[in-house]
Design a protein that fits this description.
The complex is a heterodimer of chains A (about 110) and B (about 140). Helices cover about 85% and strands about 0% of the residues of chain A. Chain A has about 110 residues and is mainly α. In chain B, helix 3 crosses helix 5 and helix 5 packs antiparallel against helix 6. Chain B is elongated, with a radius of gyration of 20 Å. The relative contact order of chain B is 0.11. The chains are: A mainly alpha (about 110), B mainly alpha (about 140).
Chain lengths: ~110, ~140
């Protein structure tokens, strides 16, 4: 993929994540901070499908943005054909693993498999 | 750049004091990005503890809902706000907004893009990060 396209994705994921993370944080402030973290409240959040969907979206957006950012930082430090491929594929793999792990929590909790 | 500066290699490039607030913003952007990625991975692991049921969740909350945990979260809030505000500044700059008009380079060759608008953007990001951190501390410790 062209670097210009990757940077557009980087900026797009950043803007979308800012909006959704703001909603995620505001949800913590609708009740007291400690109260919002109680087991029943968190479980209720996960079982509310629109909210669970938003969490999944945040997970994907931040994983893509975060690991692409890490890739950019690593490519600034050192260059080379093999190194660049290793960094790019390594970041992509880490991104997929994190999304899979986070999705597992969201799906299992949403479906009541706790 | 003089010959001596070249000899410093990556240390010279990394020196945040030599090239003004823009270089400080460059480093803060990368450091906050790495910090936020580390926190994000930790947060995904932290929330996965809900699959261990109420006991597992409460056990993990006991670890994170401490004075140290709140202090770390306040730093995360500051990093998040700085990264967001400075990121928007960088995006605007890449889009050609606030970087000035193209002009013939004349002595003393001041880069048109490193102007007061972007400096204000960087200082605003730092100030807003500080305010958000204080607000976060007030919410977390005010209960």
């Amino acid at each position: 993929m062209r670097e210009s396209t990757i940077m557009k994705i980087h900026y797009g994921t950043a803007l979308a994540a800012v909006a959704l993370v703001a909603v995620h944080i505001l949800m913590r402030l609708t009740q007291g901070f400690a109260e919002s973290l109680e087991y029943e409240n968190v479980l209720a959040n996960y079982k509310f499908i629109p909210y669970a969907g938003m969490l999944e979206l945040i997970l994907i957006l931040l994983s893509v943005h975060g690991f692409n950012g890490l890739r950019v930082i690593l490519l600034e430090l050192k260059q080379g054909r093999i190194y660049e491929k290793a960094v790019s594929y390594g970041s992509l793999t880490a991104m997929i693993v994190l999304i899979a792990y986070g999705s597992r929590t969201i799906i299992m909790t949403n479906m009541g498999m706790v | 750049m003089t010959q001596d500066e070249h000899k410093e290699g990556i240390k010279g490039m990394a020196n945040p004091r030599r090239y003004g607030i823009e270089r400080v913003a460059y480093w803060l952007m990368r450091l906050t990005g790495l910090g936020l990625l580390a926190y994000f991975i930790g947060h995904i692991y932290e929330t996965s503890n809900i699959l261990r049921g109420q006991v597992g969740w409460d056990e993990f909350l006991e670890l994170t809902q401490t004075t140290e945990g709140h202090a770390i979260l306040a730093i995360v809030i500051a990093m998040c706000v700085f990264h967001t505000v400075n990121g928007i500044r960088v995006m605007l700059g890449h889009g050609g907004i606030g970087v000035g008009k193209p002009a013939r380079p004349d002595y003393p060759y001041d880069p048109a893009s490193q102007n007061y608008r972007h400096k204000i953007g960087i200082y605003s990001a730092i100030v807003l990060a500080g305010i958000a951190m204080l607000y976060g501390l007030a919410v977390m410790f005010g209960e």
